[in-house]
Amino acid sequence: MSRPALEVADIFRDHGSAWRDANAGHVSLGQMKVMSAIERCRTAALGGHVARCENAACGHTVIAYNSCRNRHCPKCQGVAAREWMEARAAELLPVPYFHVVFTLPAAIADIAYQNKALIYDLLFKVSAETMTTIAADPKHLGAKIAITSVLHTWGSAMTHHPHVHMIVPGGGIATDGTRWIAKRPNFLLPVLVLSKLFRRLMLERLTAAHAEGLLSFYGAHAHLADAGMFADYLAPLKKTRWFVYAKRPFAGPKSVLAYLSLYTHRVAISNRRLIAADGNSVTFKVKDYRIDGPGRYTMITLNTHEFIRRFLIHVLPKGFHRIRHYGLLASGVKAENLARMRALLDVAPPDQPAPEAVNGADAADVLPTPCPCCGARMFIIERFEAGCQPRHRPTPVIIRIDTS
């Protein structure tokens, strides 16, 4: 019989209490809530339901515990991603899509950790402004474009590495609104031009935020509270190239959706990357993006407390939106602009799927997946509250051992 797969929740349950004690006074309320949610996710502590196969001859019965639905939980993001992707499918256009990445330099990332809400917000807004400004320039595209942006704050080893992934259609609406302007194949906008404008705008906004007293500095960066010191800190960044990366266009709308599903609801580390854990350390898979081929995949082992620390540095501020839309997809004008883009591209609006009938049964009582034994529908026969045990028992798991 194979061992259950290792999960972040297992590490938190085994070592979270000791980590919290060792870091008392240095753990935010948000981080505490994330740890608690992940530890309790899909356990009796959150309640759940019992479902049984409608086929009386089968009668397969399962117990399912409720999900925490925390956006940082590795187990809860799959469903959230699917729901988000279904909503986005109707917004896709029959044009090439590009993937663009804007990354903050390490020096800015260092102070971003102490000013998450402000600098992450600036990263979103400045990268979007950079794209829309250069796209609107007649020397480049001369059009209004649509942008979907997703914030990631980690590298493969869970270090602090803030960057924004953008999915951008290869074209836009002319500034006079009369036609669709398509970009030439395999090219969207010049990355060097994007990089320079991104650098200038971000440094200007950071300087303005400092002048308004909106930035906080602690520890080794406490001296940056002084305006002169902060200016000196930023000065070298004016001469370095800031990283903006653009990939070749996707093969089609379906590949865009598949790609987006890998990014929109990702957390600092997925359970499938975990390899082993013991009383002192955690080993997991990492990817070095600077290396091509099989050599880019390797493993890293961290002290358990360091693993927990790295996971929790990526907890976002309360209410912070990590998926945003800009340009033609901005809130309030998206519906009108989507209709305009479809008209200019001569594309019919997507059909609205008809609601599925459930043959007289309440849809809320039918599981979305069929019985694993016979394929019939699974009905919820009991719901139980948090901390309670269900009255019904699951179907016993029979393990057959081949002795031949």
Q: Class by helix and strand content?
A: alpha+beta
Average pLDDT, to the nearest integer? 89
The end-to-end distance, rounded to whole angstroms, is 17 Å
Radius of gyration: 25 Å
Describe the structure.
With 404 residues, the chain is of the alpha+beta class. 32% of the residues lie in helices and 20% in strands. The protein has a five-stranded antiparallel sheet with strand order 9-3-6-5-13, sandwiched between helices. Strand 5 and strand 6 form a beta hairpin. Helix 1 packs antiparallel against helix 2. The protein starts with 7 loop residues before the first helix and ends in a 20-residue tail after the last strand. The relative contact order is 0.19. Residues 399-404 have low confidence and may be disordered.
Descriptive terms for the model:
404 residues, alpha+beta, five-stranded antiparallel beta sheet, three-stranded antiparallel beta sheet, 14 strands, 32% helix, globular
